[in-house]
Design a protein that fits this description.
The complex is a heterodimer. Chain A is α+β, with helices and mostly antiparallel strands. In chain A, 33% of the residues lie in helices and 28% in strands. The radius of gyration of chain A is 41 Å and the shape is elongated. In chain B, α5 (104-129) crosses α6 (138-165). The chains are: A alpha+beta, B mainly alpha.
């Protein structure tokens, strides 16, 4: 018994060589250690994942809220950019024209589908009168037919009661535009020998004393050549979509300003055309 | 001035203001919120209500007055407004005198069929009276009728509430003392 410690001291001196009987013990201990180490790693991992998950949930909620806020701001920013571009366009138009214009906002539309009128927020107190032209940057809208003290009603060119002097920009052929109360109108009294094609631009004729001459009105959508008629039936579509108008100008004084073809064509092709 | 006269005047004033509000809702609120989707004709629902619930003479004159207000919200000529509204009143009276029902569903059906009749009457009268008659706008009018059906229920409740509040002789109210003594004797 007294020799056992001496033997063990002797064994410690040979650390580099594991004795044959210790090897399986070490193998088992290693195995168990690895197993439990892996297990502990797994448990720790799962626990930390769970804890992280709780944090992620919180973070996710916070980030989603931030993202929603940023998205809203971005939308507002985009909307502001569009509005700025549109207002800049309007302002440029007002600066560059000789005409005396009064800006107005559309505040109402006709109650019945049978008529095409709009209501603007300027009236007699702002100097508006019956039969004054209402235009936008892109083209003619209509004319004032019932000015009241603070608001005015505007008859659009698509109303079936409206009639305008007009001419085809390319050929200078004159005719009369009549609304149909749908989204278009008819250009009448154009001689059947005239060369009118789909896509031709129709401008104001200037003889009705409402609009300045040469302002864009509509685009030709279809031409009917009836055999028994001396004139063509030209279907037109207004350049301005009446249900998208937000801001308009009332022409207080046209100052005898006529629009040249280049000017009108440029105005027609502007993308933010409807306002 | 008697209490019943005051109540009647108040009722007429309030119904007029409500009519203005209905027209403004249709022309200045709905198109800017829902775009070109057809708006419910709240004014038409009110005309049907007045024709159905009010005494004949009062209803006719009030509807004429409403027609005058309508011309402030549209380019509709007065002749078109009045003739089409009278046609609508006659349509409502035709059913009022034949079908006696106080149900809400009856009112909704009457409003929807009234809308259909109004559209047909308007197109017909337009072809008769106007040099440039109105288009049919089939889908638009059909959607309007659908909206009228849906909106007729809350509008009826609302108008009936006002109508009852300013009624001098409520039809289902407590028996008056005069009438009670008359019955006892």
């Amino acid at each position: 018994m007294a020799l056992l410690p001496l033997i063990s001291i002797n064994m410690e001196q040979k650390k580099t060589q594991e004795s044959w009987f210790a090897q399986p013990l070490s193998f088992l201990s290693d195995g168990f250690q690895s197993l439990f180490s892996g297990l502990s790693l797994g448990v720790r991992g799962t626990t930390s994942e769970y804890v992280n998950l709780l944090n992620i949930k919180k973070d996710n909620a916070r980030l989603q809220s931030e993202l929603a806020e940023i998205k809203t701001r971005l939308k507002l920013f985009d909307e502001s950019q569009i509005e700025i571009a549109r207002l800049k366009n309007i302002l440029d138009f007002q600066k560059n024209t000789k005409m005396e214009l009064l800006p107005a906002q559309v505040i109402g539309r006709d109650m019945l589908p049978d008529h095409k009128t709009i209501t603007i927020n300027k009236g007699r107190k702002d100097g508006l009168k019956h039969l004054q032209a209402v235009i936008t940057v892109s083209g003619a809208v209509g004319y004032i037919f019932r000015p009241s003290e603070h608001t005015s009603h505007v008859m659009l060119i698509t109303d079936r009661y409206s009639v305008f002097d007009a001419m085809i920009q390319k050929t200078r052929a004159r005719g009369i535009i009549e609304g149909t109360s749908k989204d278009g109108g008819i250009l009448q009294y154009i001689d059947r020998t005239e060369d009118v094609k789909t896509g031709d631009i129709i401008v104001t004729g200037g003889l009705d004393n409402i609009f300045p001459k040469g302002f864009p009105l509509a685009v030709v959508t279809d031409v009917e050549r009836k055999t028994k008629s001396a004139s063509l039936v030209v279907n037109i579509k207004p350049i301005i979509e009446s249900n998208k108008i937000e801001e308009v100008f009332v022409v207080i004084d046209a100052a005898h300003e006529d629009f040249f073809p280049e000017t009108t064509t440029a105005a027609v092709t502007k993308p933010e055309g409807n306002n | 001035m008697s209490r019943s006269s005051i109540l009647l005047i108040l009722k007429l004033v309030i119904f007029t203001l409500v009519f203005y509000a209905f027209c403004a809702f249709q022309t200045s609120f709905w198109p800017f919120v829902l775009g070109s989707f057809p708006a419910p004709q709240l004014w038409l629902i009110m005309v049907v209500f007045v024709a159905l619930k009010w005494p004949s003479v009062r209803a006719v004159f009030f509807v004429y007055f409403l027609g005058l207000i309508m011309t402030r919200y549209s380019y509709i000529p007065l002749k078109m407004a009045w003739t089409s509204l009278v046609a609508l009143i006659l349509f409502v009276w035709f059913f009022k005198n034949r079908i006696h029902s106080t149900s809400l569903f009856y009112f909704s059906i009457l409003t929807t069929s009234g809308s259909l009749f109004y559209a047909i009457a308007y197109i017909t009268i337009s072809r008769w009276l106007e040099p440039n008659p109105t288009p049919i706008f089939f889908l638009h009018r059909l959607l309007e009728m659908g909206c009228n059906f849906l909106f007729s229920i809350p509008i009826y409740k609302f108008l009936d509430f006002i109508d009852q509040r300013f009624e001098s002789n409520p039809s289902w109210g407590p028996t008056s003392t005069d009438h009670a003594s008359e019955v006892e004797s």
